[in-house]
Amino acid sequence: MVLVAEPMPWLDSAAFTLLVPAGCVHEPADCGGLTSFTCEMALRGAGPRDSRRFIEDLDNLGVEWSDSVSTARTGFSGATVAGNLPTALEIFADVVQRPHLPEDQLEAARLVMFQELRAVEDEPAQKVMIEAQRHYYPDPWGRPSQGNEEAIEAIGIEPIRRHFGLHYRPNGAILGVAGRLDWPELKDTVERLLGGWDSRQAPGVVDGVAGKKVEHLEQETKQTHIAVAYDTVPYRDPDYFQAWGAVGVLGSGMSSRLFTEVRERRGLCYHVDASYHSLLDRAGVFCYAGTSAERAQETLDVMLAVLSDLGRGIEAAELDRLKARIKSGLIMQQESSTARSSMIASDWYHLGRVRTLDEVSRIVDGLTPESINAYLARRPPRDYTIVTLGPRPLEVNIGVR
Amino acid sequence: MVLVAEPMPWLDSAAFTLLVPAGCVHEPADCGGLTSFTCEMALRGAGPRDSRRFIEDLDNLGVEWSDSVSTARTGFSGATVAGNLPTALEIFADVVQRPHLPEDQLEAARLVMFQELRAVEDEPAQKVMIEAQRHYYPDPWGRPSQGNEEAIEAIGIEPIRRHFGLHYRPNGAILGVAGRLDWPELKDTVERLLGGWDSRQAPGVVDGVAGKKVEHLEQETKQTHIAVAYDTVPYRDPDYFQAWGAVGVLGSGMSSRLFTEVRERRGLCYHVDASYHSLLDRAGVFCYAGTSAERAQETLDVMLAVLSDLGRGIEAAELDRLKARIKSGLIMQQESSTARSSMIASDWYHLGRVRTLDEVSRIVDGLTPESINAYLARRPPRDYTIVTLGPRPLEVNIGVR
């Protein structure tokens, strides 16, 4: 396990992000949802604490915490007053090393898993993005963490124990800590809590194929929900900041092209944006818009036209605005232990090192319209994966406004 | 207008929250959505800036901003590096005093309003809470900001100009600023920007009646969405912190009673919680759970049993956990200029003064199980407003587990 830390002595809080290499990509093909199920069970008692005491002790320490499951990792993160951090870490060190995985809570946990799955069915805006990831990335890299009903119905305690045994391991795990902290003391604490964690080999992942490039999911929703994804470079690529700048101009914030063209000028939707998503060695740009059925075709047409335009380059004024927003965001990130603990853990996962905010700031300063346009000339948006959800399918009219 | 400020010299950012007394309660009965429509139009150019330059200038200043419309107020808030605050305030001073309300953008704005309305239709978890507020509070105090299709279809530029003219006014407006700031300089800036804003009288609000106590909205959703509301004291009431403590034990966090009984023990749902909501002189507790149709009756039964139990009092250990969480939350609030600017503006609205975090901390220390139980004995949860959304209606079995 790697410990990365960033002291922020001007704060009174401290935050941690603990990533273990247990991701949905490791689920057997008929066990969709096993990683989330394992995580749900790992949180139902660990070490000296049963399920109830686990939750109560964290509350008594004032820890605001959450868990998350993605294709490559299971993450546990939390923040509290700095003095309570060591005990909070002790509790989560038990979760990743000594969870009870109590069989008598298996059915309650299974029901929670079912309900989560159904909650997504009632959120079409979220569902279309989950499906876009599933279609865009080659299996198993786009798997939804929620799994599917049949698999969750069938999973017993043994697959959960096996999944835990194989994938909750220190080789590949990362602990990021940021906030008010004393480095030698933190190092000792973490050594004591996690130093004896046994490494083990995990089976590799075999890449499958991606889903259909164009898919319509018929559902009697009030809006038609549109997702468009296309290829970009991963976070660790030298071109990453160029790609990031291009996505920012495309769809981040109210002066972005998508917001301007789709919402402000044409009133086609309430929500529209584009965001960057990266795995270790592949990445995608994911655009979303939700609109009424009768405006859906026009919305998709405009989105594709905006994407096609982006390939022709961005302007200096657009980049200046983006830089101002990013620089302001960096300063505010410096005020949040939670944001930094998550960022440094993620940096280590992708880069094997941490970028300081100063370094990011210098890189952003160095971006020019020319550098981004050179990138866009090499890798224009194209070859789209398009998933729509709503009452009627749409036509894909590339290059038509 | 009142300016309230809290210097946080350990930060590099500054944040503002500008509240104007334009709320949905002021909408003529056939103009549901007029306040949001007016806000959407006010953001399409003001003072020397047209719609485009307004957005671009805010981006160039690195301002992360948002607007919000509630029954009593329209709010504009933002955060940026401290040095850019005066210009950000200048831009929003134009929005509230000199918006163009450009007729040539009326149709685009109307379409955005329609799309927002439809987006809510596709989010049943949000919709059931909107309907719970509408049913719980006597009209017009529970009106949804999104309005309704017929009204939005019919609203022209004149009602918008009239609504702006009547309700965007300094008497009743509050500006909260927190972060790195210089008080004399801030006072001068605000005097210059907003000192000439003309007061005017606004018509009063006539209270109508509340909606049905039990309502089912039939919709073919995957989950049944359940909202239960009941009466509590408003924020300015001397009993507020007792009420807040009781709601915390009931439904805030993972060791709360609702989470424990509904989700953890029985696996009935993925999301369940209770939250406190206050207007100036009335308030409600709103509980939510989303569950499958076949478990919905049991979920509602358990929720009502938990509420009924709460009336019999809380335990010392529950309060200790809640206090620990609140104290930790207060320390983290001290690290966020955005949280503080919003809090001090809200304090002024409700109390006519600002509570410092030290004062809140002392009040929380003073809470005891006895003080909260005395409150609960006087005002136990009862007389519920229950709104459900899903394929089938439920029975209301008070006192049955």
> Which residues of chain A sit in consecutive blocks of at least 5 with pLDDT less than 50?
none
Strand content of chain A: 15-25%
Instruction: Output the radius of gyration of chain A.
Output: 22 Å
The CATH architecture of the largest domain in chain A can be given as: 2-Layer Sandwich
* Sequence of strands across the biggest β-sheet of chain A: 1-7-2-6-5
Write a structural description.
The structure is a homodimer of 401-residue chains. Chain A has helices spanning 34-42, 51-60, 85-97, 106-121, 124-136, 149-154, 157-167, 183-194, 240-251, 257-265, 293-310, 316-333, 337-351, 357-366, 369-378; strands at residues 2-7, 13-20, 45-46, 49-50, 64-69, 74-81, 174-179, 214-218, 223-232, 272-278, 283-292, 385-390. In chain A, helix 1 (34-42) crosses helix 4 (106-121) and helix 3 (85-97) packs parallel to helix 8. The first copy, chain A, is of the alpha+beta class. In chain A, strand 10 (272-278) and strand 11 (283-292) form a beta hairpin. At the A-B interface, helix 2, strand 6, helix 4, helix 10 and strand 11 of A face helix 2, strand 6, helix 4, helix 10 and strand 11 of B.
